[in-house]
Amino acid sequence: xxxxxxxxxxxxxxxxxxxxxxxxxxxxxxxxxxxxxxxxxxxxxxxxxxxxxxxxxxxxxxxxxxxxxxxxxxxxxxxxxxxxxxxxxxxxxxxxxxxxxxxxxxxxxxxxxxxxxxxxxxxxxxxxxxxxxxxxxxxxxxxxxxxxxxxxxxxxxxxxxxxxxxxxxxxxxxxxxxxxxxxxxxxxxxxxxxxxxxxxxxxxxxxxxxxxxxxxxxxxxxxxxxxxxxxxxxxxxxxxxxxxxxxxxxxxxxxxxxxxxxxxxxxxxxxxxxxxxxxxxxxxxxxxxxxxxxxxxxxxxxxxxxxxxxxxxxxxxxxxxxxxxxxxxxxxxxxxxxxxxxxxxxxxxxxxxxxxxxxxxxxxxxxxxxxxxxxxxxxxxxxxxxxxxxxxxxxxxxxxxxxxxxxxxxxxxxxxxxxxxxxxxxxxxxxxxxxxxxxxxxxxxxxxxxxxxxxxxxxxxxxxxxxxxxxxxxxxxxxxxxxxxxxxxxxxxxxxxxxxxxxxxxxxxxxxxxxxxxxxxxxxxxxxxxxxxxxxxxxxxxxxxxxxxxxxxxxxxxxxxxxxxxxxxxxxxxxxxxxxxxxxxxxxxxxxxxxxxxxxxxxxxxxxxxxxxxxxxxxxxxxxxxxxxxxxxxxxx
Length: 637
What we know:
By secondary structure, the chain is mainly alpha-helical. The chain has 2 domains: 6-222 and 237-470, Up-down Bundle (Growth Hormone, Chain: A), CATH 1.20.1250.20; 482-627, no CATH class. The chain is built from 26 helices and 4 strands. It has helices spanning 15-49, 54-82, 91-96, 98-109, 111-121, 130-163, 169-190, 199-220, 231-235, 239-251, 254-269, 276-282, 287-315, 317-331, 345-358, 360-377, 383-412, 427-450, 453-456, 481-500, 502-511, 515-551, 563-575, 577-589, 593-620, 627-636; strands at residues 6-8, 11-13, 458-460, 468-470. The strands form 2 sheets. It has a two-stranded antiparallel ribbon with strand order 1-2. A two-stranded antiparallel ribbon has the order 3-4. The termini are far apart.
């Protein structure tokens, strides 16, 4: 047996002990994620059944939790960084809230029975409709659940940073992502279809499972010893002094503000996700199909994460998140096509599944990179505190997001009276905030590059005399001329295949007697794609020219995008081509000429977005002067 030992602070693990640590943390994660999946998936359906307006759904599901996140999380995180107990500094907050969180979950499940009893036995409540009492009670129990859940959410991910050896954190986060995705897939595939008729049983089961598994995790996972609190900081233990210290350390550096703001905008964009289930129902899917769509996407995500986790440290999670944020910003309009197009529900299901599966790898990379990035840019001594400061800013967005998105959708409702067609315009809410998120992410990325980037980054530390604190170093970004060319060629093949198969698509339309569609396809689609293909070839040649200049020791005219994410997205665009084929084939079979042309237009716009994406990356990757070099230059002058 190997005698190798692994260290995390004062903790020392043998290989079996490390495996046991992973097992308990991942079991706890499974239950925590399951709870976080069940509540937002089931509760909106119940509220909709009770005829709650969209703004009320947003208020209960997003605004109230956002208020708690802005107030509870900072206090818990600040205290947990400074707590010294025999249980550690993270586990006490999880363990002591365990019974209350489980009880609130249980009461959500039994809220309808409880409201009926209250309505029958409390006189003044009888002046209100039973549904109104149930909605208010659900809001109260949801508030209680989120209150105690904030304690867990504030410290659970920090527990990984404290107990998992640094050399295993990337692999652990990959497993963490796999287990979380598996929990979501399990619920969506096998339980979600019963949400409208068995809400009580679902919440009862989840509450009991959470109580047992998370309780055992708290007893089995041990934290190490932490450095003592500095004397100066310990002497300033009053509330006012603590608030001042927290504000100075967390909000005095622009680098951290950029980190907070890009995520806040992403949360604003996600405010409409509460209503996605209604979008799917409007597109003709039932709950079972919606569950399987999410579940099979989760299975694909698990498979993708196994491979994605190995690339996160190699390409750096900061770079991955920035590239994917830009890609999301330039392609955020894609769902516009479903505003004028309606396909039979089973066809929409297969198109949606194809889109989810083809994006599984990039989605997995995004998921693994999210928390890994924070561990690479936030110093360990203030990790939970900075995460909580980020959560506080994000909470302001969360408070507004669901409520405002609900008002936005309610304002569109009169445009289609008597229908839910307005849910198809959800993308109009998300896309502008995705663009803002990408802007802040690019600013953060450029600042990170100036502060040392992959190899030499040190986190800003206003609390330290040196002004910075070391964080785990990454590997240098390596230029590969061959891989860069391959990544560009993948997109070139995508443009080429689209043009080469044009006669096939035209023949399909002609065979089905779609004279108008085939004529406009030749007059509009083919010339547009030919122009875009020409522009792409020029852009790809410019990137290759810059690579050649750099290899020869010269200075590139623009930055050179990293081949990694380009390759992932290039493969994704090729694999997604059958989706476009199905769109053309099905609309031709159904004699849907107008819809066919809308899909062709969407293909043109998505191809143009690829050009914008790569050109933006060239601008983002322009060389920078590091802040260290600037300081040396000033000193020498």
